[in-house]
Amino acid sequence: MNFPILNQKINKNRLVYLDNAATTQKPIEVITAIKEFYEKDNANVHRGLHELSLRSSIQYEDAHKTIAEFINANEEEIIFTSGTTESINLLANSFEQILKPNDEIIVTEMEHHSNFVPWQQLAIRNKLKLKIIPIKEDLSLDLEAAKKLITKKTKMVAVTHISNVLGTINPIKEIIKLAHQNNALTIIDAAQSISHLKINVKNLDCDFLAFSGHKMFGPTGIGVLFGKKHLLDKLPPSKFGGGMIKEVTTKHSTWNDLPWKFEAGTPNISGAIGLTKAIEFINKMGINNIEKHNNELTKYAISKLKTLKNIKIYSTKNQGPLISFTLKDIHPHDVSEILNIDGIATRAGNHCAMPLMTKLKIQGTNRISFQIYNTKEDIDILIKALTKVQEVFK
Ligand SMILES: Cc1ncc(COP(=O)(O)O)c(C=O)c1O
Fold it and tell me: What does the pLDDT look like over 131-157, one tens digit per residue?
C-alpha cells in the first residue's frame, strides 16, 4: 500500500489524515494510471478512427464494466457523472418531467445537502410534498415514522446509506422494501459507504445508487449514478449535447443507448480510468478487510475519546467509519485549527447537513473519519492533541 501524500510532515509533524469522509487519499496505482493516460493514450472517446481514440474509448468503456462488477450491476446501468452531487441532481432533474403535483418524495433528517436540496427544489418546482423521516434520540432513523410516512403517494425515497455526520449505518434494505411495498422508487446515497461496505445493488434491490470516486481512493470529478435498466430506459435525459443522441433533425432528437443517453459531452476519461484503478486497489485490499480495519479503529477511537472530559460524542449503535464530537465551550473550528498545528487533519462545521444540525440544536461538530492507512497510533496522537486543545482553552 503506497499513498505518497502521507509521507510528508505538516508543521514538522507526521501528517495524520483523519478527514477521509471528505475525501480519501490516492494510492500510487491511481496517480500513475492518470499520468500514463495523458502521457500515452489521451484522445477523445466515442471511438474516433485513430489509434489513440480507440485506446481511450476502450479504457473508458471498460471502466463502466469494472464499476458494474464492483456493485453487481450491468454495464449499461453505470452512468458516469462528476460525483454524488451530480448523480442526484441528474436524477432529480430527469424526474421533473415525471412527477406531478401532490406526489410525495421522502428524505431523511440526516441527509447531506446533496441528497436533500435537489429533492427540495424539485418539490418546489413541481408542487410536490417533501416528507422527512426523523432521527431518534439514539441517532438512528425512526423506522416506525418511516412506515407511516411512506405511502402509496410516495414516488421516491432518498436515503443515505451512512450518515456523513453521525456515522449511522441505515437499514437501507428494509427501507427499500418498504418503498417497494408502496410502489415507490429508491435512491441510495452511497457516498460514505462505497469504500467501506460491500454493496450489491441486485441484493439490495435499490432502484438508483449514487457515489463519488474521490471518496473511494479515486480522483475528484468522477462519480457514478447506478439505475436499474428498465427505469433508465424510461427516464428522459436532463442533460443534452454530444454523445447522448442517436439522431438529430432540425425538429427533434432521439437518444442514444444506455448509458450514453445520460452522458452528454466529453466525459472525464482520465477520472474513469483512475476510478478503475481505485476499484482494483479496493479489490486487492478486500472490502471486508477495509470494513474490519475501519470498524476496529472506530471502536478504538470511541473508547479513547470517552476518556476525555467535557466531550460529547455522537456515536450510535450501528456506526460507520466516522465520528462526530464536540468539546464543551470550544468552537469546532478552533479545535480543528489547533489540531492542524500538530499535523492532524480533521473536519469541523455543519458537514453540509444543516437540517440535522438544527435537529441536534448545534452549529457544528468536529469529525474524524478513517481509512485503511490509518492506525491506532493516529488516534493516540489525536487524543493527546485534543487534551492539549482543552488545556489551551481552560
Ligand atoms: C453522504 C454524502 N452525500 C453526498 C456527498 C457529496 O459528495 P460529492 O461532493 O463528492 O458530490 C457527500 C460528501 O461529503 C456525502 O458525505
Answer: 999 999 999 999 999 999 999 999 999
pLDDT band at 394 (very low <50, low <70, confident <90, very high): confident
**Among 20, 23, 24, 85, which is best to mutate for testing ligand 1, by the most ligand atoms less than 8 A from CB?**
85
Options 3.40.630.30, 3.50.50.60, 3.40.640.10, 3.30.70.270; which CATH number does 29-284 get? Answer: 3.40.640.10
Q: Which pLDDT belongs to residue 385?
A: 97
Domain spans in the chain, listed from the N-terminal domain onward: 4-26+287-392, 29-284
SS3 annotation, the chain: CCCHHHCCEECCEECEECECCCCCCCCHHHHHHHHHHHHHHCCCCCCCCCHHHHHHHHHHHHHHHHHHHHHCCCHHHEEEECCHHHHHHHHHHHHCCCCCCCCEEEEECCCCHHHCHHHHHHHHHHCCEEEEECECCCCCECHHHHHHHCCCCEEEEEEECECCCCCEECCHHHHHHHHHHCCCEEEEECCCCCCCCCCCHHHHCCCEEEEEHHHHCCCCCCEEEEECHHHHHHCCCCCCCCCCEEEECCCCEEECCCCHHHCCCCCCHHHHHHHHHHHHHHHHHCHHHHHHHHHHHHHHHHHHHCCCCCEEECCCCCECCEEEEEECCECHHHHHHHHHHCCEECEEECCCCHHHHHHHCCCCEEEEECCCCCCHHHHHHHHHHHHHHHHHCC
Domain 4-26+287-392: CATH class, spelled out: alpha beta
Q: What's the predicted TM-score (pTM) here?
A: 0.97
Distance 48 CA to ligand 1 centre (A): 34
Q: Which atom of ligand 1 is nearest to the CA of 87?
A: 11
Q: How far is the CA of 244 from the centre of ligand 1 (A)?
A: 26
